[in-house]
Specification:
This protein is α+β, with helices and mostly antiparallel strands. Helix 5 links the parallel strand 3 and strand 4. The longest helix is centred in the middle third of the chain and has 32 residues. It is globular and about 90 Å long.
């Protein structure tokens, strides 16, 4: 009998057992039209999986008042995001006044919560002004809270992040006003200082009288300015929350997103709400992240469809939870995901282990049938399970190194959160990974049969599945549902009737059972690329290669000489060329640059600083011929990165350096307690303290903790303090000298700085730029 391994891979290991006599029709070869048909079917599955990747169409401003209109919300957003408005600035106050007026026009009585916000997680304090309003319900008690932050970063207009969410809340309240009162109260929370370290939300949960009344918190954010509004985080015991979301037409999200989010160093206001024990959900749109925290985050750049979906979700959930029993929202966690046509599917997290056992039993049956039929060699199948992740790692690393080379060719990419033309590179790396995988399979098939590779992959998947059951149950669905049909097909192919199938029937079976994996992984890989950015796209490729390992028998049937891997490799090359050709700097794809005016308080010297890899036509003139790339230990210490630096003329009114006053310094046992008073003599926007060469054990400001756990080289930040001092009480281990370095920052360059940027340039985000800074330091023995 001719073995299935021989049919699928004619060049299997020379060490394999001799082939047996062929069964009727089993050795039929596949004609080209069957292969093309299978490839088209797989392509349609990919398209089906990606069909919900775009947000819905927006609704115009003339829509009925009881529906959400992105057109009406956009009118409000233009006022909110007309210019950058970070906490403490005059522009921030203008936005606040506008929002208070809008809430009053909606018939509400908004309050300002002016408070010193303090975050131990972010090691920050600051004076913030939250806007809070309440719509009374029919029955007093717990309330639904809609939350978003109205401050922006200094480098961005804050249209998407997070002005669009604020505008959506105003439009949602407008729509709710057209109907009868909800059963439950509705709290509107527009926080200040989120970008400075969640200061507004921390102030609300710790100080505001309404915080204890929140029955469910719905927080809305943006990390890009387009794409679907995804629910990416929930509070524990999310069963009823997920069930409510699943009833919505435009609901988007899955439980894997939160498992990934938990591993990232990111926080939103929801972090403060959850630490306070609130039940809730967190939403964000994250596509086109090139706008994130930049000058491109303007109203005209926002995808109106994204805002429409956000508003539809916000309004529907406000109405649902407005009539729900908010005292009884917690229930068992659910695993949830979306399927085309069907919508959101969810089931109890308690089923993760039983479903894992089903997969394990199927794997066991497949191994037994495969070994008995002679198609599997047990040891080599186990080896295949180890080889696959190595192949995945090699491919992911190769593509990551290639991306490093591309950034070398296009240095403007290095300073971007993600590249403007990222879609060309995503498609290129996916095609390249497929081609590299086929090359790798051509090597390993000398020792491993196609079915051994597939069952070995399934063994790896089952191991990963049980790891996820214990550590990340929300991720188990992405392993469970592709694995069950794949194992069922493999087990059948090892039976007598399965071995008698023609190649055409075998192809049909393998394509059909691949459908769940292809449909579910297509949006997953895309979402991972968006979430992790192109620079970390190797993670998405690693996941994709694990899926390819499960489909080796199918790929072997489809393989034709010079088709695989030649076609995907050629496609990858063409896509990389297109990416390179569309990489140019323009007004729609601006380059970033950086410039800071710095004064050293010890010497009184002033200097220009830049973190740019190379000075450009905008900042080079201020450096002149004295520009030097060097470390600046007098400002940032010996551990800092190199900067471009050059002497600068003194400002007409030189910025006074911040002051450091030691209030007390005492040692009791094994703890040294130090009181330090920090003050910006020019009422700067930010004041930051670096405790260098010290492990800070604890720290507080006015009795509020500002350090969550001991930390080396601790960084503390204070915002919007004006002429007010920040008194820090901190503890360290005695007997070790250290340095306290304090830098204050005022937004905006001096008049002696360069002219306005050209349209193809923007301020560099994620760091300090376009600012005046001053530094002072004090040593402790």
């Amino acid at each position: 009998m001719t073995t299935l391994a021989s049919n699928l891979d004619a060049s299997a290991s020379a060490h394999s057992a001799p082939a047996q006599a062929a069964t009727g029709g089993a050795a039929n070869t596949l004609s080209l039209h069957y292969i093309i048909g299978a490839l088209l079917a797989l392509l349609l599955m990919i398209m089906l999986g990606l069909q919900n990747s775009a947000p819905p169409a927006s609704v115009s401003a003339t829509a009925p008042a009881d529906v959400f209109s992105a057109g009406r919300a956009m009118d409000k957003l233009r006022h909110i995001a007309s210019k950058p408005h970070p906490v403490g600035t005059a522009a921030n106050g203008e936005v606040r006044d506008y929002l208070v007026a809008e809430l009053k026009a909606l018939g509400l009585a908004p309050e300002l919560q002016s408070e010193l916000g303090a975050s131990a997680l972010m090691s920050a304090v600051g004076n913030v002004h939250n806007i809070v309003a309440r719509v009374p319900g029919r029955v007093p008690g717990k309330a639904v809270m809609l939350a978003a932050h109205y401050d922006s970063v200094p480098s961005g207009f804050g249209a998407a992040d997070d002005g669009a969410s604020v505008a959506a809340i105003l439009e949602t309240v407008h729509a709710l006003n057209t109907g009868g009162r909800l059963k439950n109260d509705l709290i509107i929370l527009l926080t200040d200082g989120e970008e400075a370290g969640l200061l507004g939300s921390e102030a609300f949960v710790s100080k505001h009288r309404w915080a204890k009344d929140v029955g469910v918190a719905l927080n809305f954010e943006y990390r890009g300015n387009s794409g679907r509004m995804l629910m990416f985080e929930t509070s524990p015991g999310n069963g009823k929350l997920v069930e409510a979301l699943g009833r919505l037409k435009d609901a988007a999200g899955n439980s894997l997103l939160y498992e990934v989010y938990r591993m990232l160093p990111n926080d939103t206001d929801m972090s403060a709400f959850k630490r306070a024990g609130m039940t809730g959900m967190n939403f964000a749109a994250m596509e086109r992240p090139t706008s994130y925290h930049t000058d491109l985050d303007r109203p005209e750049m926002l995808n109106l469809g994204t805002m429409q979906q956000q508003g539809d979700i916000m309004l529907a959930l406000a109405r649902h939870f407005g009539e729900a029993d908010l005292a009884d929202l917690k229930s068992g966690d659910r695993i949830y995901f979306e399927l085309p046509v069907i919508g959101m599917v969810s089931y109890s997290g308690a089923l993760a282990m039983p479903l894992g056992l089903v997969c394990a039993l199927l794997l066991g049956a497949t191994l037994v049938l495969g070994v008995r039929s002679g198609e599997l060699r047990l040891v080599r199948t186990v080896v295949a399970s180890v080889v696959l992740p190595f192949i995945a790692i090699i491919i992911a690393v190769a593509c990551t190194l290639l991306w490093g080379g591309i950034k070398g060719i296009h240095p403007q990419y290095k300073s971007l959160f993600d590249v403007y033309n990222s879609h060309w590179y995503w498609m290129a790396f996916v095609a390249l990974a497929i081609g590299l995988f086929m090359l790798a399979h051509a090597v390993v098939r000398r020792w491993l049969r196609a079915y051994e590779c597939a069952v070995g992959a399934a063994l790896l998947w089952v191991v990963l599945l049980f790891v996820c059951v214990k550590t990340a149950p929300g991720a188990t669905f992405i392993l469970t549902w592709p694995l069950i049909p794949a194992l069922a097909a493999l087990a059948y192919l090892f039976t007598k009737s399965g071995q008698g199938l023609t190649q055409q029937a075998r192809l049909l079976l393998l394509v059909g059972t691949a459908a769940p994996g292809v449909i579910m992984f297509a949006p997953l890989v895309r979402t991972l690329y968006v979430a992790m950015t192109t620079a970390a796209g190797g993670i998405a490729l690693f996941v994709m290669v694990l899926l390819l390992g499960l489909f080796v028998p199918l790929l072997s049937l489809l393989k034709r000489r010079f088709v695989f891997p030649a076609v995907p490799m050629a496609a990858a090359l063409m896509l990389l060329i297109v990416g390179s050709l569309t990489a140019g700097v323009s007004a729609t794809q601006p380059a970033t640059n950086n410039l800071v005016y710095m004064r050293d308080g010890a010497s009184g010297n002033a200097m220009w600083l830049s973190t740019d890899a190379a000075l450009d036509s905008w900042n080079r003139p201020v450096f002149g011929d004295k520009a030097v790339m060097r470390q600046v230990p007098e400002v940032f210490g010996a551990k800092a990165r190199p900067y471009w630096t050059a002497p600068a003329d003194a400002l007409p009114v030189p910025p006074a350096a911040p002051t450091v006053e030691i209030l007390h310094d005492e040692v009791v046992g094994e703890v040294r307690t130090i009181g330090i008073r920090l003050k910006s003599m020019r009422a700067a926007d930010e004041l930051k303290m670096y405790a260098e060469d010290a492990e800070v054990l604890s720290a507080s400001v006015r009795g509020r903790p500002v350090l969550s756990e001991p930390k080396e080289d601790w960084l503390f930040a204070a915002y919007n303090m004006g002429a007010e001092a920040a008194d820090i009480e901190m503890t360290v281990k005695p007997g070790k000298p250290f340095l306290v370095r304090v830098i204050d920052t005022s937004y905006g360059l001096p008049a002696s700085g360069p002219a306005h940027r050209k349209p193809d340039m923007i301020m560099r985000p994620f760091g300090v730029s376009d600012a005046v800074r001053a530094v002072t330091s004090v040593g402790f023995n």
